Amino acid sequence: MTNRLFGPLADPAADAGYEDHPPRKGFFTDTSICIGCKACEVACKEWNAIPADDMVFSGMSYDNTEHLSSTTWRHVAFVEQQVPSGDVLGLLANGGEPASSSSASAVDLGMPAVGTPQPEPGIRWLMSSDVCKHCTHAACLDVCPTGALFRTEFGTVVVQEDVCNGCGYCVPACPYGVIGKREPDGRAYKCTLCYDRLTDGL
Fold this sequence. Notes:
Shape: globular
Strand order of the largest sheet: 1-2
Helix content: 10-25%
């Protein structure tokens, strides 16, 4: 059955009609060691020639891009959380170790010649690099009336800019808020999982 909309699907590329195809590709981000440097954001923008975001202070900690969009294909979320006062006292009393199994302790990542970055007491930092999931059952792909969105041989989902008519159906269809429309031309854009690099074996 092709283009199945629900249920287990081990091989979306084969389901899309690719009989002999390379292995499925994807990103894995280890959030336990991400330091929020945003180098992946910069590399994505440079390689894909994505327009710059407005660099305005959002008031959201160091998270200047805030979310994924048509001009932010990779977003590093930088979250500051208030640690409950009991947890802070427990961490201080135990030399940084959690007072109970429900408490979270900071991980010493260290930085050469700079030392470990430290948030204010009672605050912890969480970083996570986010990108399009290239879903097995991709809602954006299902609702596109022009065929601008297609499944690649690597199992990823890509927008063909020259086919997109700017209808915008894909924008609300995405449950992760990944895809967006650019104001100058009204067409939809999102992460391609570097389809051009994948086809060259990179």
